[in-house]
Prior knowledge:
This protein has helices at residues 27-38, 52-62, 85-96, and strands at residues 13-21, 41-46, 69-73, 79-83. The chain is α+β, with helices and mostly antiparallel strands. It has a four-stranded mixed beta sheet with strand order 2-1-3-4, sandwiched between helices.
Amino acid sequence: MNRLWKRKTVERRSAPDLTLYASAWCPYCMMVFHALDALDLDVRRVDPRDDVEARRALYEARGHGTVPVLRIDHPDGRVEWMPESRDIVRWLRARYAVPAPAGADGG
Ligand SMILES: N[C@@H](CCC(=O)N[C@@H](CS)C(=O)NCC(=O)O)C(=O)O
């Protein structure tokens, strides 16, 4: 069973290699914001609608300004741009979700 367990006592984590390009009004971005909250994870957030430099970087990388996009700065210097809210949420969960301890689901 692949249940996830919401940690209650562990402090929030941060992921300095991640930058989320997103806008507060965007429902697809909200899915990613909720996933980050559920994972107790802080990432740098930029809004290309307000931030000229972020908009320039996003257009340069993607050719358009659709959000959300997750920028991943890999240790080897490679930069990955991940679009699609569902893919971002799936990737974040795969990387950061803490498996439920035995018996956490009461069963
Ligand atoms: N399939 C995409 C849809 C993303 C999307 O439509 N984003 C809207 C905001 S909610 C957007 O950026 N629209 C403006 C544009 O594409 O330039 C996802 O799930 O991430």
